[in-house]
Design a protein that fits this description.
It is a multi-pass membrane protein. This protein has about 290 residues and is of the alpha+beta class. About 70% of the residues lie in helices and about 10% in strands. Strands 2-3-1-4 form a four-stranded antiparallel sheet.
Length: about 290
Amino acid sequence: MKYKWIYFAISGVVIIPGVISLALWGLRPSVDFIGGTVWELQLARDQGDWNEVQGQIDTLIENEGIEISGSTLNDQGVVQLRSSTITPDQKKTIQQKYQDEITTDITELRFETVGPSLGRELLIKTITGVSLAALLILAYIAWRFKEKMYGVCAVLAMLHDSIIVLGVFSLIGHFWGVEVDSLFVTAVLTILSFSVHDTIVVYDRIRESIRKYPKLTFIELINKAVGETLVRSINNSLTIIFMLSALLLLGGESIRWFVFALLVGTIAGTYSSTFTAAPLLALWSEKLKKSK
């Protein structure tokens, strides 16, 4: 643990850009949170210029008085439109117009509308769920290990991972337009569970060593526990990282950013369990010793 300040510095280098991005730009919420409509249209291949067709569709929608918040075209010819709420009548009108005015064949892939009240409700439930999970984890670990410092340090390490994921998505949301949706919330809650799981393994080894090696100092016990669990933690995480990498490369567009969030969280959780949670515990014990 003599290198703990280096570990904290590494965490700071990763976290600070994300925190700055969150402060300046925040996250880019999807219609799941703010309400509106998502409309995906498949443009036929070899039938006109896709970019020109995308512009024509955008114009038709805007002519109906609908505000477009995002319009993207991928390399498969799929146009994804995000806008204020489109009513069924407006949708029929727009479809009739692009059938009459656009020569390219267009196939609807997806049409979803979420009301603003449902979006606000999901946002409140998300904040409540994450807060409740953190409090329950804090209470359980503090009770299980009979010391509140274990619970506090585990939750701080867990928040370390969450902030990294949020910061990464704030950055890619600002620069590449990636939005956070309900799947992102699922990923964050999964990351919290994974992070705490590895941390508890390290803490449990520390508790066992306290009974077995009463003559060792607390810092020596932490070093011993980290050394005994490090290889296991890395091997366990690598199996997850390989699987997620395969899903990221070969999976569909609909789960790409969900998988990416899990991948970032897994890497951050693997690091924090050893190089954040354990050093925080060492720092806490040193402060207690000085105060006595």
